[in-house]
Amino acid sequence: MSTIDLAALSGLDLMRWVQREQPTDLPHIGRLLGMRFDEVEHGRVTVSLDTRPDFANPLGTLHGGIAATLLDSVMACAVHSTLPAGVTYTTLELKVNYIRAGRTDGQTLTARGSVLHAGRRTATAEGQVLDERGKLIAHATTTCMVLRPGD
């Protein structure tokens, strides 16, 4: 496990640390699914992963939960990138629209999340999941509750 004090980092610094280090010793959903942090900017995060047969629904296409997890992750990480050290968040609402089926044969999916509003108490963001041809698989919006020390 890393010796860096993650709680002392701003959200943007933490996201950039994750992007740079791609830690395998830090348990998180991204490690489980094989997510790669490709881009991290203030209010914007891009993550990719390669699909696999384990991601299939009973019909053999990409399970909607994989797309929803990607969307929840990139949008929440985009929100996190706007927060100062010591301030956290939690997802209050997630609305996903599924556009087309994704494959589970190793194709690369790219998810992009960007903040629409970063307020003192709430933040909103939007996101998209694209296949390797740039075709939209799903898109979403989220509302996050911002948690400040002493709240």
TrEMBL record:
One of its GO terms (molecular function) is 1,4-dihydroxy-2-naphthoyl-CoA thioesterase activity. SUPFAM superfamilies: Thioesterase/thiol ester dehydrase-isomerase (SSF54637). Keywords: Hydrolase. One of its GO terms (cellular component) is cytosol. Pfam families: 4HBT. Residues 60-137 form the Thioesterase domain. This is Thioesterase. It comes from Streptomyces xiamenensis. The lineage of its organism: Bacteria, Bacillati, Actinomycetota, Actinomycetes, Kitasatosporales.
